[in-house]
Amino acid sequence: MSKPKVGFYWCASCGGCEESVVDLAEDILGVVGAVDFVFFPVAMDFKRSDVEAMSDGEMAVCMINGAIRTSEQLEMAELLRKKSQMIIAYGACSYMGGIPGLANLYTRESLLKAVYGDEITTSNPGYTLPQRHTNVPEGELELPQLHDSVKTLDQVVDVDFYIPGCAPPVKLLKNALGAILEGKLPPKGSVLAPDIAVCDECPRNESKPDKLLVKKFKRPHEDHIDREECILAQGFLCLGPTTRQGCDAACPQGNMPCTGCQGPMGRVRDYGAKALSSIASILDSNDEAEIEKLMETIADPAGTFYRYSLPSSSLFRRVNFDEEKK
Amino acid sequence: MSDETRPKAVDNWQPRIVAFFCNWCTYTAADLAGVSRYTYKPNARVIRIMCSGRLDPQFVVKAFREGADAVLIGGCHPGDCHYQEGNYKALRRFILLKKLLAQFGIEDERLRLEWISASEGDKVQKVMNEMVEQVRKLGPLHLEPIPSPSHAPDNQPAAIGAEGGLP
């Protein structure tokens, strides 16, 4: 029997997801023994034409990481969908939009203006922008189109499963590969991680008070974080209570608050709104003016609560809103 | 609702407001407004919740997503909550949620919290009329439709329970 064919592709992502494959360490030998990698541009020399040459559904599984924000990424996602029996959205960007998704708080034009003009580290006096078509002696060069909005993978193609995390924990990748090979997958559309909060596997959970109330919110650089006590109880914005586990509470174990990269648990429809709800309710004040003042210490609510999930929020974005009004 | 299906002419457009009223105070006040025959603008769809503290911010973003131009939350006055402190929780969430909505370019006036006790039927009338006029000035809230692949009818990530899921 021939080995199942597997692909691994990246869209708008940082390469951290590929790192998590490398982090399989010696287990990667077992994976390579069990499957055939037929497309893995980061690690091996495959071209788009190799995928185009495949018959439809030839790949058993294709894992795609990164958000979709250019015409090239969209074409590749659609092509890989056609050539694969199963598509797995791998990592926070592909699953929920991730860090690149925060670009949806700005217009495409203002992003280009910042990156190619206003940015303090940019020196571009003529405000030269990359052009979609450039003529060189060898012929015409073409660049992909930058879309107006960053999208999640399931907003552009049908997705079978989701593996959360930034980057996904090795444990989840191993479990998923095992489940695929043994044919023991949960129903289509499932997130391949336990449906319970990060706090549940956090070693500091014991120190969490029964009634959690904080006097003010602090950011990690503003104060010393005690290594034993519940980080949220210390007043640092830890999103553990609203975030899906599977990471062994890696950030709290490294003495940093959870930032929510594993996304929501199954019954939550909008991660950011739910996280905001849980954090706001623990503020220990009943006075309107004081609450207003204390909430100011959360400098960037959208970037805090939708850090990894803005394109998957119910709000998505406003049509042509005026950035000046923000 | 997409841009095309929205009524174009401002004259024909009516603000749509979703109002979440707490069972013990504001909903009763709205009842009182009714039996007292106070008339007010018919733009709000009232949803009764047991306490303003039950109002999950997810309800608010969902209302906006489903076509509300504004959301009104009504609860008991501070200190009067039937469940001691639900309204304080609502207040904290409301203040932070407004900050977040502003980052999405959603104006302040589109989310409003009012303390209206069971005896304040007249306040229901006043707040409703005021809010409808404010939102009418702002115009419709246009949220961009959530993209979806044409061939996938249901792509909402499903929940997995304890059984049938992965360890």
Number of helices of chain B: 4
Give a quick account of the main beta sheet of chain A: strands, pairing sense, barrel closure: 5 strands, parallel
Percent range for helical residues of chain B?
A: 25-40%
Helices and strands of chain A: which structural class? alpha/beta
Termini distance of chain B? Answer: 40 Å
Strand order of the largest sheet of chain B: 2-1-3-4
| Residue windows where pLDDT falls under 50 for at least 5 positions of chain B | 151-167
CATH topology of the largest domain in chain A: Rossmann fold
Under the CATH scheme, the architecture of the largest domain in chain A is 3-Layer(aba) Sandwich
Share of helix of chain A, binned:
25-40%
Low-confidence stretches of chain A: none
- What is the domain tally of chain A? 3
CATH architecture assignment of chain B: 3-Layer(aba) Sandwich
Mean pLDDT of chain B: 87
What is the tally of beta strands of chain A? 9
Distance linking N and C termini of chain A: 60 Å
C-alpha-based Rg of chain A, rounded: 22 Å
Description:
The complex is a heterodimer of chains A (about 325) and B (about 170). With about 325 residues, chain A is of the alpha/beta class. Chain A has three domains: about 5-100 and about 150-180, NADH:ubiquinone oxidoreductase-like, 20kDa subunit (Rossmann fold), CATH 3.40.50; about 105-145, no CATH class; about 200-310, no CATH class. Chain A has helices spanning about 15-20, 25-35, 50, 70-85, 90-95, 110-120, 170-180, 250-255, 270-280, 290-295, 300-305; strands spanning about 5-10, 35-40, 60-65, 70, 85-90, 135, 140, 145-150, 160-165. In chain A, the strands form three sheets. A five-stranded parallel sheet of chain A has the order 2-1-3-5-9, with helices on both faces. In chain A, a hairpin with a 2-residue loop joins strand 6 (about 135) and strand 7. By secondary structure, chain B is an alpha/beta fold. Chain B has a single domain (about 15-140), classed as Rossmann fold. Chain B has helices at about 25-35, 55-65, 85-105, 120-140; strands spanning about 15-20, 45-50, 70-75, 110-115. A four-stranded parallel sheet of chain B has the order 2-1-3-4, sandwiched between helices. In chain B, helix 1 crosses helix 4 (about 120-140). The longest helix of chain B is centred in the middle third of the chain and has 18 residues, at about 85-105. The model of chain B is unreliable at about 150-165 (pLDDT under 50). The chains are: A alpha/beta (about 325), B alpha/beta (about 170). At the A-B interface, helix 7, helix 9, helix 10 and helix 11 of A face helix 2 and helix 3 of B.
